Amino acid sequence: NAGVTQTPKFRVLKTGQSMTLLCAQDMNHEYMYWYRQDPGMGLRLIHYSVGEGTTAKGEVPDGYNVSRLKKQNFLLGLESAAPSQTSVYFCASRTPASDGYTFGSGTRLTVV
Amino acid sequence: GDSVTQMEGPVTLSEEAFLTINCTYTATGYPSLFWYVQYPGEGLQLLLKATKADDKGSNKGFEATYRKETTSFHLEKGSVQVSDSAVYFCALSDRSGNTPLVFGKGTRLSVIA
Q1: Whole-angstrom Cα distance, residue B75 to residue B53?
Q2: B105 touching A, CB under 8 A?
């Protein structure tokens, strides 16, 4: 069972570079989420999607864009990376009928 | 907006000690409450949940009771093991589940043999 797969697992970027984080789920879940985890801050919601072709902003959306072109994939983009975006990024998914989230194992991003 | 406050860590306990991690919440409606656990190097996993007042969620020896009068959902375990060392997150969502989970800041637990 793959569940939620995040790629890459680790990445180092230089300030100003761009990149895309990929989240893929094979459980046919409608809802998908991107969170960032920072020391002492817990998890904060960046963007989320309640279905293919739909996205919405979370608590900390600035500097990020997302796309949900296919139901199973949720992409998180950084157009111009900043050191403040150094974090661990987690993707999660769920069905509308369930309130339990399935999380990926995370992407550790460092911006230098 | 809705928020969750949980006790600051880290918490260090000896094996077989009693564990309490406090969690209180602020919500405009009548939320569902959750505890998630994150083991080193992994993503979060649902540990237990409760959806209405006085409900008790339980799993793997952990328990938490939904207390509406005190807006609390404290996590307890009678006898911790080294394998319980992890970060624990309290979280809430509205009853409909339409709003994303709101997490507390997490409490790191270390259990020593």
Answers
A1: 15
A2: yes
- Please state the length of chain B: 113
- Gap between the Cα atoms of A21 and A95, Å rounded: 22
The tens place of each residue's pLDDT in chain B, 113 residues long, gives 889 999 888 999 999 999 999 999 999 888 999 999 999 988 999 999 999 999 999 999 999 999 999 999 999 999 999 999 999 999 999 877 778 999 999 999 999 99
Residue A14 confidence (pLDDT): 97
Instruction: List, in order, residues 6 or more apart from A6 with CB less than 8 Å away.
Output: A21, A22, A23, A24, A89, A90, A91, A104, A105, A106, A107
Q: Could you give the CA distance from residue B52 to residue B65 in angstroms, rounded to a whole number?
A: 10
> What pLDDT does B108 receive?
95
**Which residue's entry shows tokens 């409760």?**
B50
Reduced DSSP (H G I as helix, E B as strand, rest coil) percent helix, strand, coil of chain A, to 5? 5, 55, 40
How close B80 comes to chain A (CA, Å)?
Answer: 23
Quick one: closest CA in A to B1, which residue? A59
Cβ-nearest to B43 among A42, A58, A90: A90
Q: Tell me whether residues B89 and A42 touch, CB distance under 8 A.
A: yes
What residues 2-41 of chain B have any CB closer than 8 A to a CB of chain A?
32, 34, 36, 41
Task: Kindly state the percentage of chain A with pLDDT values over 70.
Answer: 98
CA A82 to chain centre: 17
Give the closest residue to A52 by CA, choosing from A75, A36, A35, A34: A75
